[in-house]
Structures are given as structure tokens and as C-alpha cells.
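Researcher: Quick test of sequence recovery. C-alpha cells follow.
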């Protein structure tokens, strides 16, 4: 294995997006460039990638990895929510969104994404902008913190957790927060660490992840040429639900309420579903890359002229 982050569901992504010579991919979550490198190989000799990422460290790694494809790769330090500012309508043959956070980020204690090693409570994809997890943990009112942990972490003991956090403030490190959460969550026999859901909730909130998905999906469809494909990899139910519902709605004609007898919405389908059910990783991939265990891939094709 090399030092680069392993791209999840790589063969399945390529199969779903169907690269061909000269094709243009918009990679909304470039990361270390694994998916982009595979696309550039498959779309040679003149296929292109426009890659977005909020993380400067990831962009530096991607630039190193993709250096052999100079002239065919454009790297943009921005969120995929800004896709429409940088990509012309109907100019892409494929768009890929690999949601969530990468192994590079979780393995670096200084980024504060994981409680496996002690580090500062940061969790920002772009550590140069916005509020950190420590800012939220130490300033949010107890009720707001409980709501955040319940909504984004699906933590049923969210009120106990929020109360414990507020009593223990200030908290500035991953280990300190994890210990507070573990003491607040009753033992239920679950295999996952009791702090997992709270850390997920804070990461989602810090980076506005769910709002970003909702904002990006229409921009991704607009960027595609007719016949172009959109692939989205999600890693938890909240992400996948947003993608599933968007794909389903945009693949329908009428979206009026079922009880309405006459259609007034004039909705025209913009997508055709390529995957009716999400594609998941093979046992072999999970053995090689445990992060792939929770990955779900959905693919749709743009319709219309």
C-alpha cells in the first residue's frame, strides 16, 4: 500500500461514471486525488478533472499525486457548494461527490476528528476558516447542544450528553470530550464507542455537511451535459437519505402531493436512476480498507436536452 488515501469503491465509481477519452470529471471532494487519478487514466489521453476541496493539506497531497497529469487537472480550494461559480453549465461529463472525511484527516491527531488519539477539538475541513468543535462545545446553550447531538448524531441520550458537557466546560481536547460523553451515555452493549455519535454530530455541524449536500446536488446536475452522470458516496444514513430523496424526486415527473388529483407542479425529470439501490463495498475491499464498510454509492444520469 502506498502513502496515499485509498479511494473508496473505486471500480464501482468508474463503472458507474463510464469514463471515455476526453471526458471531463468534476470531483467535488478531491481529497488525495485517488478517484481523480483513476479517471485521468481511464479518460486519456486528454480527459480532464476539475477538483474541489476545502482542506489545504488534501489539496497539497492531491497536487503531488496528480503531477503526472499536469495540464489535465484543475485544483480549486473551495467547497463543492461553490461548484456553479467555477464550472459552466452543461460542461461536465461526470460529477463525483465522496462525502464525509478522509483517512488522512482522521489519522492526524492535530485535526481533532477522532478520539483514538488526543488532539485539539477542531474538526474543520478547512482549519483556516469558521468555528471549531471547541467553539461549539464551549459556547452553545445546553438545549442547542442537545438538539445538535440528537439531530446530527442520532444520539438518544443527547440531553444527558449535553448536560454533562456543559458541567465539564471548558473542553479543548478530543480525549477530554470523549471521556465526558462516555460517562454520560449508559452502557447498552453496543460495539461502537459511546462518543462516536457525538463526535459525528459535531463534525457535521462544524462543516455544515448536510446543508452543503443539499446546496450542491442541484449545481452538480446543472453542470452535467445531457447523458452525463452524477455519483455520490455517502457514509451515514443522514447523508444517504438526502441523496436518495433528491435522486428519487428528480427522476419523477409529477411531484404533487398524492391526494392532489390534477398535476400543477409542471415538474420535468432531470435524472434517470442508474442504481435503484446503493452499491456497497465487497468483503475484499472492506478487509483492505475498513472505512469502506459504511460507504454507499448512488449513481444517476442527466436527461433532457
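Model:
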Amino acid at each position: 500500500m502506498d502513502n496515499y488515501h485509498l479511494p473508496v469503491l473505486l471500480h464501482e465509481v468508474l463503472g458507474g461514471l463510464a469514463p471515455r477519452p476526453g471526458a471531463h470529471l468534476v470531483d467535488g471532494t478531491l481529497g488525495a486525488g485517488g478517484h481523480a487519478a483513476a479517471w485521468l487514466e481511464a479518460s486519456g489521453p486528454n480527459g480532464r478533472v476539475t477538483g474541489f476541496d476545502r482542506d489545504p493539506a488534501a489539496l497539497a497531497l492531491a497536487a503531488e499525486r496528480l503531477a503526472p497529469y499536469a495540464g489535465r487537472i484543475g485544483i480549486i480550494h473551495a467547497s463543492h457548494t461553490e461548484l456553479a461559480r467555477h464550472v459552466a453549465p452543461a460542461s461536465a461529463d461526470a460529477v463525483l461527490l465522496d462525502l464525509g472525511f478522509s483517512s488522512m484527516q482522521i489519522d492526524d491527531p492535530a485535526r481533532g476528528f477522532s478520539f483514538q488519539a488526543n488532539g485539539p477539538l477542531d474538526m474543520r475541513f478547512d482549519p483556516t476558516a469558521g468555528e471549531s468543535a471547541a467553539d461549539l462545545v464551549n459556547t452553545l446553550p445546553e438545549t442547542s447542544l442537545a438538539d445538535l447531538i440528537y439531530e446530527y448524531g442520532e444520539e438518544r441520550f443527547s440531553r444527558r450528553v449535553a448536560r454533562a458537557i456543559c458541567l465539564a466546560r471548558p473542553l479543548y481536547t478530543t480525549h477530554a470530550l470523549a471521556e465526558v460523553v462516555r460517562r454520560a451515555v449508559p452502557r447498552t452493549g453496543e460495539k461502537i464507542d459511546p462518543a462516536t455519535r457525538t463526535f459525528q454530530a459535531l463534525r457535521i455541524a462544524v462543516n455544515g455537511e448536510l446543508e452543503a449536500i443539499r446546496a450542491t446536488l442541484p449545481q452538480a446536475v446543472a453542470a452535467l451535459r445531457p447523458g452525463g452522470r452524477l455519483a455520490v458516496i455517502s457514509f451515514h444514513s443522514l447523508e444517504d437519505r438526502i441523496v436518495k430523496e433528491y435522486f428519487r424526486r428528480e427522476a419523477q415527473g409529477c411531484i404533487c402531493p398524492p391526494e392532489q388529483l390534477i398535476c400543477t407542479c409542471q415538474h420535468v425529470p432531470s435524472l434517470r436512476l442508474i442504481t435503484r439501490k446503493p452499491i456497497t463495498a465487497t468483503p475484499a475491499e472492506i478487509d483492505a480498507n475498513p472505512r469502506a464498510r459504511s460507504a454507499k454509492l448512488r449513481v444517476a444520469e442527466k436527461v433532457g436536452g
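The chain has 13 helices and seven strands.
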